[in-house]
Prior knowledge:
CATH class of the largest domain: Alpha Beta
Oligomer: single chain
CATH architecture of the largest domain: 3-Layer(aba) Sandwich
Bound molecules: 4'-deoxy-4'-aminopyridoxal-5'-phosphate
Order of helices and strands: HEEEHHEHEHHEHEHEHEEHHHEEHHEEH
Largest sheet: 7 strands, mixed
Distance between the termini: 19 Å
Strand order of the largest sheet: 4-10-9-8-7-5-6
Shape: globular
Amino acid sequence: xxxxxxxxxxxxxxxxxxxxxxxxxxxxxxSVGGEPPFVARAEGxxxxxxxxxxxxxxFGSWGPMILGHAFPPVVEAIERAARNSASFGASxxxxxxxxxxxxxxxxxxxxxxxxxxGTEATMSAIRVARAATGRKRIIKFEGCYHGxxxxxxxxxxxxxxxxxxxxxxxxPEEVASLTLALPFNDLDAVVEAFEQYxxxxxxxxxxxxxxxxxxxxPGEGYLDGLRKLTSxxxxxxxxxxxxxxxxxxxxxxxxxxxxxxxxxTLGKIIGGGLPCGLFGGKREFMDLLAPLGPVYQxxxxxxxxxxxxxxxxxxxxxxxxxxxxxPKLEETSKAVAEGVAAxxxxxxxxxxxxxxxxxxxxxxxxSAVTNYSEAARSDTAAFAAFHRSMLESGVWLPPSQFEAAxxxxxxxxxxxxxxxxxxxxxxxxxxx
Length: 432
Ligand code: PMP
């Protein structure tokens, strides 16, 4: 058994300082049990904990570390930028450099604004949509997570789903009631909502491939159907690519499925591991922002030079090497996702694998998962046992059934084989 003494001590101190011992809920391992290792450092595909144990990383800081940890060009870019001071609170050329790179990957983003998190990106996009339409209501989908702003915490995914909190305490009823949470992959539900609230819906926001209820791909024609419905009813179509952007393709789901969005939100990879987000899209909407227009939105650290440097190094590398990177991510992810699923099948354990590129979930159950209520039927106790066994074997999966696993370009054959071997042992332990 691996030693976890130092992590245990750090956890005890953390519990005195931080609610639940953490600064973001899912890190607490509440739904899978066991003790969360404290990370000391990471390199490539591996995390090293405070006791020196090594893990293959399948959450990649929840998405950003697509090029692997401490990727030299990113480290060098941050070091170089830091020598010129960490922040100015004034405009820099780096913002335009990253902005042009983003535009090259997302040609539909005519104008954009940098923020410091995905939460800010979606919150601000919603504000723009309400200003543009003069309407109050928004439609989101059950199990989709768009950060922790008040109006978006209704029937959300990620830690909200993991901890079983359908609507957060502290969000006023008046605010929550403006958010309609509908089942994902159900166009009829959206048609009905537009009929029920004519002229009242400002926007439809979604994760175009859901990651925060576990991985759930959109059904045939679903995204296109939403685009048509929003256009017909004068609502904005907001595609939240905080998780999928630069991961499922260089131009995210917008490119992969060829969709047209009014506003797009980005985060995670765009900051190369530093705090960064972005919202952008059609000029007519983005020009409503102050100082041009009446929608206020701002940030002391928006466009922060270290975040810009890490983002330029990351997105720049992805763009330059896209023809190698994305096929490799697909190949490695397929090998891991299908290899583990085959081990489950051999052991007679029912698992449904949902995967789009380097993003997937093994749902513990035997029926298809196309929306949140189907995901919620998964055997979370079986997932928890699997998670604990994998961790003990040196494979760190996202610690919830309702989160997608990720990998990056640093994962290769060695990691594929080690992961499948760990899964074989985990499933054998369950059936023994
Ligand atoms: N949108 C999506 C799709 C996300 O996955 C997340 C974070 N997991 C967010 C928004 C919120 O981003 P952040 O945690 O940076 O606030």
